[in-house]
Design brief:
globular
Length: about 170
């Protein structure tokens, strides 16, 4: 199994001390390296993540995405601490907010919920969905090994983010 290269300082700049905003964590593997080391890239917004994913979508790319995770702040978590969930589908959605259609990036996580950069979106409010990035286990035919790997990374990242929150 590959190892994960990440430190508490990785998250110190993006953790919203007020617990208001989500952020994305893109896990990448160096294709030139001989070691199976996964590094993380933290993106504050979906646009930042999409720009990064587009840079890697080249024939001569030296890194490959092995997963995308969504960090949910304490106020969006039932446990009152940061949670991390695998993103199965990075999408562009149109959803209804008080009779007004809004177009934005959204992330369908392993639990089936949809989130934008700052809130959860009710599935009932979604009017259209277009996939931009999809994990290979995003559809019904789940890959149990990949799912276990995604949740392993999510657990490690969740623990690190919550520990980073306790730093002065």
């Amino acid at each position: 199994m590959p190892s994960l290269r990440v430190s508490l300082e990785t998250f110190s700049e993006v953790i919203d001390r007020n617990g208001q905003s989500t952020f994305l964590i893109i896990c990448v593997l160096d294709l030139r390296g001989t070691d199976d080391v996964i590094e993380v890239v933290v993106c504050k917004t979906g646009q930042c993540a999409l720009d990064f994913l587009n840079r890697l979508d080249r024939p001569n790319a030296e890194q490959a995405v092995v997963g995308v995770q969504l960090a949910l702040p304490p106020q969006m978590s039932k446990e009152a601490k940061w949670m991390v969930q695998p993103v199965l589908d990075f999408t562009r959605i149109t959803f209804d907010v008080n009779m007004h259609l809004t177009d934005t990036y959204a992330y369908r996580v392993a639990s089936g919920q949809y989130f934008t950069d700052d809130k959860e979106i009710s599935a009932k409010a979604i009017r259209s969905v277009r996939s931009i990035y999809q994990a290979s286990n995003a559809e019904l035919q789940a890959d149990p090994e990949l799912s276990a790997f995604q949740f392993w990374i999510a657990k490690i990242l969740r623990n690190l983010i919550n520990e980073a929150c306790t730093l002065p």
